[in-house]
Amino acid sequence: MEENARSGTIEQEKAAIEAEIEEIDRKLEELKGNNVVCDRGKARPVKKADFHLDQAKLVEVKEPEWLIPGYIPKYGITTIAGEGGVGKTSLWCSIVASITTGKQHFLTQGRQIPFENEPETVVVFSAEDSWEYVLKRRLEANGADMDRVLYMGASDERFVDLNFDGDLLKGIIDTNRPDLVIYDPVQAFVPANLRMGDRNAMRKCFTPLIGFGETYRTTSIIIAHANKQSGVWGRKRIADSSDIWDSSRSVLMTGIVPDSNGLRYITHEKSNWGKLEDSVLYELEDGVPIFKSYSKKKDREFILDEARKKNVAPAAEDAKEFIVETLKEHKQMEVKELDELAAVNGISKHALKDAKAALKKEGVTHTWAVGYGKDKIFSISLKDTLKPDE
User: Fold this and answer.
1) Could you give the CA distance from residue 137 to residue 135 in angstroms, rounded to a whole number?
2) Opening angle at CA 341, ends 337 and 342, nearest 5
3) Alpha helix stretches (DSSP H) within 102-186
4) Is 125:152 a contact under the CB 8 Å cutoff?
5) Which candidate, 228, 191, 241, 192, places its Cα nearest to that of 77?
6) What is the pLDDT of residues 298-347, one digit of tens each?
7) How far, CA to CA in Å, does 312 sit from each of 61, 256, 304, 339, 355?
8) Does pLDDT of 7 surpass 80?
9) Alpha-carbon span 163 to 205, nearest angstrom
10) β pairing state of 219-225 and 77-82
C-alpha cells in the first residue's frame, strides 16, 4: 500500500516536471518568434540583418532655415571664434537677445529686407563668466527676454558632468526642448579624458549636437578661442582642434580691426548652406554691439594687416624719430630733400610714409606747398617752427 502511494507521488512529480519543461519550450519558441534568444538564463533581442537602401528620388528637398539669415543656420553647429578680449561674450549675448525677442540681429541690420521671427527659447551654458556679475547684466543690456533664457551656471555641481556626449546634456535638451543652445567655451564641454587633437574622438564628441538638431530641432552655437599664432587664418585659427571647423555648418571669426581705435569685425569664413556673407564692422558700447558697416575683407586680410603693422611699427618709430631730429636741426626742409636724406639713412619708403602720416595726425609736423604746376615745391617743418616760406 505504502509502495503504491510512493509510486503515485513519483508519477505526479514526473508529470509536473514534464509540464514545466513543455511550458519552457513554448516560451522559448515564442521568444524566438519575437527575435529574442535566451543567453545564460537571460532573454536578449536578436538583431535581424537589414540590407535595404533608400531611393534618392524619394528625398524631400528642403530649403535651409536660418537662425540669423545667411550667417547662422538652424539645427546645426555654428562656431564663433576669436581671441580673448575681442567681445565674443557680447556677441553671443546679442544673438540670444535677438532670438528670445524675435527682433532683427545687428549682423543683418544693414540690409533693406523685412525681418520678423517668433521669439524662441535659449539655453546658455557658460564656464567663462558669472551670471551674477556679468551675464545677466550683459543680456539685459542687449534687450534679451530673460523669461526665455534658461541656464546652468558653472557653480552648479552638475556642471562638471555637462559633456557634449553625456546623458546629462541629452536629458536637459529632451526635457526643455530649446531652440538654441550656447556653449562657452567649447573646451568646457569636452570629456576630461578626451584629447582635442584626437580627430576620431572629437568627431564622435560632436555627433550628439548634430543629433539634437535632427531630433529636437535645436541649434548649437559653440564659442571657441582663436590661437595667437602669427600669420594663420581660417581653420588653423581655431585653437586645439580643426574638427570644430569640420563639424560646423557655419564659422564666424571675430577680432579687432588694426589701427581702428576699437572697431571690431565679424567675418563669415565657412558656410555649408549658402554663400559667404559680407563681414560686419561694429563697435561695442557698454557691452552692446552697434552696427557700423559691411566689408569685403575676411579674417585673412585683417590678420595680415595686423602682421604688417607689427613688422612695420618699429621701423616707423625709427622713421618718426629721424624726421623730428632732422627738422629740429634744419627747421624746415623740402619734402623731397627729407625723403632723399631718409633713404641715405636706410629708412624705407613705406616706414617713412607711415611716420609722416602719424606725425601729421599727432600734430607734430606741418606740410605746405609753394608755387604752381611743375614748379610747386612741398615743404615740411615741426608745428612750432616758423615757416617764412609759406
Assistant:
1) 5
2) 115
3) 136-141, 167-176
4) yes
5) 241
6) 999 998 888 777 666 677 788 888 898 888 888 888 998 988 888 877 88
7) 52, 18, 12, 18, 10
8) no
9) 9
10) parallel
Give the Cα separation of 58 and 78 in Å (integer).
29
Grid coordinates belonging to 353: 610714409
- Strands 72-73 and 219-225: what pairing? unpaired
Give the best-scoring range by mean pLDDT among 20-29, 178-187, 381-390: 178-187
State how far the Cα of 175 lies from the Cα of 181, in Å rounded to an integer: 13
Residue appearing with cell numbers 621701423: 315
What is d(CA 238, CA 226) in angstroms, rounded to the nearest whole number? 5
The CA dihedral of 97, 101, 103, 106, to the nearest 10 degrees, is 0
Q: Say if CB 64 and CB 73 are below 8 A apart.
A: yes
How far is the C-alpha of 366 from the C-alpha of 384, rounded, in Å? 9
Residue 189 sits at φ, ψ, to 5 deg, of: -120, 10
Per the structure block, which three cell numbers stand in for 58?
524619394
The C-alpha cell that represents 303 in the structure block: 590678420
Residue 243 contacts by C-beta under 8 Å, 6 or more apart in sequence? 196, 199, 202, 203, 206
Within 10 Å of residue 297's Cβ, how many Cβ atoms? 16
pTM: 0.69
Three-class SS of residue 59? coil
| Per-residue pLDDT at 248 exceeds 50 | yes
- 125-145 as b/e, with b when 16 or more CB fall inside 10 Å? bbbebebeeebbebbebbebb
* DSSP secondary structure letter of residue 216: H
- Residue 368 · residue 390 · CB < 8 Å: yes
Q: Are 181 and 123 contacting, i.e. CB atoms less than 8 angstroms apart?
A: yes
Instruction: Write the DSSP string, 16-56.
Output: HHHHHHHHHHHHHHHHHHTTEEEETTEEEE-PPP------G
